Every structure is written in C-alpha cells, then in structure tokens.
C-alpha cells in the first residue's frame, strides 16, 4: 500500500537557486526559506558549503545560514484546516480513510531541519562552524558526472566522503547521501542498476541515515524506478531502512538485545526526480508503491544542475502536494501558502513558475 504520510524534502533554495544565472540577494533567499517553513515544509535544504567558484549562486552560505538557523528552534503553527486550502477531492480509496478527512494536517509536532550540502572536510567544517545539524554528501553513480561535479572518480569521491560522514556522525549530525545519475547520464546514457546499487551500498556502509536517489536529468520512467528499488531491496536496502536512524543513544540497544537476528541499520530511501521529461510524478508514485516515504521536490519547480547538460527543474513541490493530498496522504503543507511563495519567487526571478499546479491555482 501507499504510505499514510510523506516527508517532503524541499530543495528549492539549494537545487533550485544553484542553477539561477542571476545571484539572488541573500535577504530574498532567507525570506524564501522562512515562507517555505511557514507553508508547512519541515525539511528545507538551505544551501551548500561547496567551492564558491564552482557554485557562485551559493557563495553566500555563511551569510545566509545564520539568517535562517533560528527557524529550527522556533515554534511553528500547524497548517490551517485543509478545508480552507485548495486541494483535490480525495480519491475513492485513499491509503487510510482516517487521513483522507484532513490530508493537509500534521498529526504530530515536527521539528524544522535545514540540511546543507557538504562535499568534503572543508565543507563540513564550514557547516559545523555555523551550527548545521543535518548535512548531505553527494556521490555519483557515473564516472562522467563524478568528474564534472566533484573533480574526482566515483571511488575517489566516496573516499572523500567517508571521513566527512564519520565526523558528522561523531558530531551527532544527521547525514543524507545523495546519489546522482541513478537512471541516465548525459554523457554515458542509461545507467546499469548494478552500478547504482554498488554506490548505494558504499554510502550505506559509511553510516548515512538516508539515501536520496537522484534522476539528475529527468530521464527515468516508472518501470526503471521500480526495477532500481527492487534491486536495492534485494541488496538489503529496503525503502524504509531497517532500523531507526543511528544515534549515539540507540546505537547499541537493539543489537545488544538480539545480536543474532538484529539487522544492520540501513538508511531509509528518498527519491529526487527532475521533471525534464514530465515523468517526475509518475516516478514518484512508483516509488511510493515500493514504500518510499521521503520525496524531494522544489517549490515552483525551480532548479537544475549546472554540471549536468540538460538538467531542468526538480519535481515541483506544489505538483507533488496536489497528488499526495489527492491520494489522502498527509504532508503538513498548506498548498495556497506554498503556491503564493512560488509566485513571489517567480516575480523575483522574472519568469513564470513551470509548476502546473502553481499556474492552475493562480489562474496564470
Ligand atoms: P577541487 O577543485 O578538486 O578542490 O574541487 P580541492 O579539494 O582540490 O581544493 C581546491 C581549493 O578549493 C582549495 O583552496 C580548497 O581549500 C578549496 P586553495 O588551497 O587552492 O586556496 N575548497 C573549498 N573551499 C570552500 N568550501 C569547500 C571547499 N573545498 C575545497 N567545501 C570540490 C572539489 C568538491 C570542492 C568541487 O568540485 C565542488 O565544490 N563541487 C561542488 C559541485 C556542486 O555543488 N554541485 C551541485 C550539487 S550536486 C547536485 O545538484 C545533484 C543533486 O541535486 C542530486 C541530483 O539531482 O542528482 C544533489
Ligand atoms: Mg538535483
């Protein structure tokens, strides 16, 4: 069945804005992040601590992060009643009838996370200095993209991440491992599933709490998504992970209780679709059917990757929310507030949002 609740990992401020030609003023970025949180998003990827020459759009990370880090500890009102907010009629047979009554409402309090990308020890140091608590490393399933994005081979990049993940875990941070080019690569074409599984296992062995499977150039189709998730399951990496996130507090309790049968902790899986070929929602549904309950998206469909030919925007968060609420799946997001945030950002960027849902809701 489908999950009753999905955690949306909002990447607009990072994956969206990293690809903009014009540098967005830091105050506008901070306002964007605040509005996303106010719209009910609880995981908002804020920026990257990468080399400023590689990604000039995010060179202001040191200025931006302190402007938004207080959002993590602030009290946030729950989304207003979903009846007040535009949403599709629930489907006839939603995942859970109890959820269908109020698909937009959060049923439990949730903290705000503001993860940041860190490619190496220098990036992690910068993030720790500013008090970041969630970080992400970003690997590639293909040699061509590893070279283009990280100036390394796949294995050199993994070797670069290993001490970063270890140090981050020591500091009790939550670590996400991105894996790019999981389906197709602009230089190499279709990517063999086994190649993706191998790198996923390396990231899992390092101790990542979550893996995000990236379709960087948006070429995946639902059958390919199913095949990859089935292969990962087969390889011991089920979508939900096999234990709660490892923390110093619960690290040894379960294993000690039953050392023989306790499975090793494995990361939960997330999906990260770009919508280049209009497949992102269909791919998301395929992933939900495999038990994935964390989905990356970017408000208004902003985004792309400056190091991958033909990468366009991520799946638009509004399009995702429309589908999830229609399925009776909780997100905690107020679609009207989110959509007006994307319209506001589109004005700043001087072009309309590519999100179909934003356009439909705003009548533009
Ligand atoms: P490099 O040139 O090999 O770096 O780049 P290096 O390790 O040789 O160091 C060279 C210089 O850079 C040194 O300075 C370092 O201190 C400095 P120097 O001693 O020469 O003065 N340096 C740094 N400065 C600030 N912050 C740092 C840092 N690291 C080194 N963190 C590097 C290697 C990884 C740094 C570079 O390739 C890089 O920054 N790449 C980032 C690329 C990127 O951000 N791509 C976009 C994100 S990934 C993505 O969008 C895909 C995703 O959305 C999923 C999907 O869709 O698939 C996540
Ligand atoms: Mg991306």
Characterize the structure shown.
It comes from Streptomyces axinellae. By secondary structure, the protein is of the alpha/beta class. The chain has 14 helices and 11 strands. The strands form 2 sheets. It has a 9-stranded parallel beta sheet with strand order 2-1-11-10-9-6-5-4-3. Helix 2 (26-38) packs parallel to helix 3, helix 7 (154-170) runs parallel beside helix 8 and helix 9 (222-234) packs parallel to helix 11 (280-289). The longest helix is centred in the middle third of the chain and has 17 residues, at 154-170. Residues 81-85, 93-109 and 253-262 have low confidence and may be disordered. The chain binds 3-hydroxy-3-methylglutaryl-coenzyme A (HMG) and magnesium ion (MG). Magnesium ion (MG) binds next to loops.
- Our estimate of the beta-strand percent is 5-15%
**How much helicity do the residues have?**
25-40%
Radius of gyration: 19 Å
User: Which ions and ligands are bound to the chains?
Assistant: 3-hydroxy-3-methylglutaryl-coenzyme A, magnesium ion
Give the beta-strand count.
11
Characterize the main sheet.
9 strands, parallel
Shape: globular
Query: Average pLDDT across residues?
Result: 88
- Count of helical stretches: 14
Cα(first) to Cα(last) distance is 36 Å
Pfam family, one: HMGL-like
Protein name: Hydroxymethylglutaryl-CoA lyase
GO molecular function, one term: lyase activity
Domain Pyruvate carboxyltransferase: 6-339
